[in-house]
Design goal:
CATH superfamily: Thiamin diphosphate (ThDP)-binding fold, Pyr/PP domains
Largest sheet: 8 strands, mixed
Structural class: alpha/beta
Number of domains: 1
CATH architecture: 3-Layer(aba) Sandwich
Bound molecules: thiamine diphosphate, iron/sulfur cluster
Shape: globular
Order of helices and strands: HEHEHEHHEHEHEHEEHHH
Strand content: 15-25%
Length: 308
């Protein structure tokens, strides 16, 4: 039998069926390690349905494979029943942007508003990837997909804002390139009561990049501020990691999906969006871990944030 000793202490095994260069599986391994062995994971239809697996599982923990619209309700029913039975169990949802932004959003809204004790992770790769890269309502401006040849003309939904508007306990953005920040947020979410939402932006080879650079792209989404790392606890926004800013072109040029992008307009859209989040956070920066990403350097460059 094949074994993968380098992963034997971890909840997710090697040898799963994701594409080489997949950013989601790198993140899932870290998320599961922080969630712990008592976790039951609900997986709406997505690439995870295959790489988590059903005939042969790639995880130590139980995974329940669900229809898109029912995943959130199934998780809510499960956590309620198990807690009533006095069981020590953590419930997590690992779904794509298809489930969170589009097809499952009604169920998501209901369980979030009702405050079920669930850690819901949106594994967002900005498109329906398992079926070959079709746009979803998380697909970012200008992206060339099979449904948007020549580039997406509209902006994406702001899922963090939508979830925060549900008055949930905790919401945070995460990236696989910042493992300490990611694990601290998962641990925090797990320890809080009620509904917790984590927004992962995960690289997918359908974006048209060289397979070696999945994690590099996960770092660039943060440094370019396309996916800034922040958290919202009971309505209060704060950045947890703010590396010095990189130009968006550093990110765009590595992916075929942005072939036709107007770089200047894209940069402006990203800067405008970041300014809105910055304003909501009122300049608050509170790293959860010891500054692995140069946040202090950023603060030195931005006197407005110092002491905020
Ligand atoms: C209601 C419904 N519509 C369509 C499908 C077919 N389908 C299976 S996986 C998938 C793509 C999933 O995309 P996403 O949720 O973004 O996750 P990803 O595969 O990108 O991780 C689709 C469209 C389905 N299973 N159920
Ligand atoms: S299609 Fe994308 S999300 Fe799916 S396994 Fe491959 S790299 Fe990962």
């Amino acid at each position: 039998m094949l074994t993968f000793p380098q992963f034997k202490e971890q909840i997710m095994y090697g040898g799963h069926s994701a594409c080489p260069g997949c950013g989601s599986t790198v993140a899932l391994r870290m998320v599961l390690d922080a969630m712990g062995p008592n976790t039951t994971m609900f997986v709406p239809a997505s690439c995870a349905s295959t790489y988590v697996g059903f005939m042969r599982s790639s995880t130590e923990v139980h995974a329940v494979h669900c229809l898109y619209p029912s995943a959130f309700g199934q998780a809510a029913g499960f956590v309620t029943a198990r807690r009533l039975a006095g069981d020590d169990v953590e419930v997590m949802i690992w779904g794509g942007d298809g489930a969170f932004y589009d097809i499952g959003m009604d169920g998501l809204s209901h369980v979030a508003a009702q405050g079920f004790d669930i850690v819901a992770v949106c594994n967002d790769n900005q498109g329906y990837m398992n079926t070959g890269h079709h746009s979803s309502s998380s697909t970012i401006l200008d992206t060339d997909t099979k449904l948007t040849p020549g580039g997406m003309r509209t902006g994406h939904k702001e899922i963090m804002d939508i979830m925060v508007a549900h008055n949930i306990t905790y919401a945070a953005t995460i990236s696989a390139a910042y493992p300490e920040d990611l694990k601290a947020k998962v641990a925090k979410a797990k320890g809080l009561p009620g509904f917790k939402f984590l927004h992962l932006l995960a690289s997918c080879v359908n974006w048209g990049y060289e397979v070696e650079i999945g994690v590099k792209l996960a770092r660039l989404v943060v440094t370019t501020r396309i996916h800034p790392l922040y958290e919202v606890e009971r309505g209060e926004y704060r950045f947890t990691c703010l590396p010095p800013q990189a130009p968006v072109q550093e990110y765009l040029k590595l992916q075929a999906r942005f072939r036709g992008t107007n770089v200047e307009a894209f940069q402006k859209a990203i800067d405008d969006r970041f300014a809105i989040i910055w304003e909501k956070a009122a300049g608050r920066v509170a790293p959860l871990v010891d500054d692995p990403a140069g946040t202090r350097m950023f603060l030195q460059q931005q006197p407005v944030a110092a002491g905020a």
